[in-house]
């Protein structure tokens, strides 16, 4: 009687370990891609903040040189600077109403409390002021200590 070795059955499919490794690789790739995608609202809001900061500092400098106080206030459509001359002979580019770059942007003065205006001079040292910008679920705070320029405040420093 001849004894033949039992034929080994061929493996079909994947082992559990192989499936778990593939799932882990897919999970890591998905996490990496989702973290790498920028938040477009955040980028747009940062652009608005940089623009507003430059405009506030420009108005502050004009207020100091002219000796006339300049006020910034948010409006439903954007914002405006009050106190700048708007003569026909020499129109001031900051005077008048300005729209936000993103129509859904909103602004609110949060310091000093109970006011809707920022006072931008004419004194070299103004009071500490903060304005909160919001676009969708994102928000940023522009702040000055009264001596330095308006800058984006760190997130931990965003509360008045």
TrEMBL record:
Protein name: Type II secretion system protein GspH
Topology of this chain in the membrane: Single-pass membrane protein
Keywords: Membrane, Methylation, Transmembrane, Transmembrane helix
Gene Ontology cellular component terms for the protein in this record: membrane; type II protein secretion system complex
UniProt keyword Membrane, yes or no: yes
Source organism of this protein record: Hydrogenophaga crassostreae
Transmembrane annotation, as ranges: 16-37
Location within or outside the cell: Membrane
Keyword match Transmembrane helix: yes
Any one GO BP annotation for this protein: protein secretion by the type II secretion system
């Amino acid at each position: 009687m001849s004894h033949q070795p039992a034929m080994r059955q061929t493996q079909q499919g994947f082992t559990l370990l192989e499936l778990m490794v593939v799932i882990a690789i897919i999970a890591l790739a998905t996490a990496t891609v989702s973290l790498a995608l920028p938040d477009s609202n955040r980028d747009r809001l940062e652009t608005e903040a940089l623009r507003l900061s430059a405009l506030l500092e420009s108005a502050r400098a004009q207020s100091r040189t002219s000796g006339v106080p300049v006020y910034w206030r948010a409006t439903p459509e954007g914002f405006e600077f009050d106190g700048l001359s708007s003569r026909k002979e020499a129109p001031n580019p900051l005077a008048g109403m300005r729209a936000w770059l993103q129509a859904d942007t909103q602004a609110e003065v949060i310091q000093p409390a109970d006011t809707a205006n920022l006072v931008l001079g004419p004194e070299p040292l103004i009071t500490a002021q903060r304005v909160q910008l919001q676009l969708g679920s994102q928000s940023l705070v522009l702040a000055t200590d009264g001596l330095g320029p308006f800058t984006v405040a760190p997130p931990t420093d965003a509360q008045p």
